[in-house]
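Final report, Chapter 2: Outcomes

The project's central promise was a pipeline that accepts a single protein chain and returns its three-dimensional structure in a standardized token representation, suitable for archiving and comparison. That pipeline is now operational. To close this chapter, we reproduce one record exactly as it appears in the project archive, with the input sequence first and the structure output second.
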Amino acid sequence: MTDHPTTFKAEPADLEDPDWDDRATLYKIDEGQGLLGGFDGLRRGTLGELVRFVMTLPESDRHEYAIQESGDKRFGPAEIAALAAHENFPAEGDDA
């Protein structure tokens, strides 16, 4: 896994070529506490692993989760779905 932050000079991450093996943490979006309310990480892994995990959840539940990538990039439910549809999204086992 890489250790570099997802932004450089406070510029947004380049989502054209996501770093699928970057460290990431899965969070539940808590009602009334904001995106990372409570800072209770549910699961850790690579960005690819966590995107894949969220996409295995029932569609009606996916809106409850966000991923914090190493550094400062957060992916909400819509961004997670977009990452799963990315042309370079790794096959299972290719992102670890």
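Archive annotation: Strands lie at 23-28, 41-46, 65-69, 74-75.
This record, like all others produced under the grant, will remain available to the consortium after the project formally closes.
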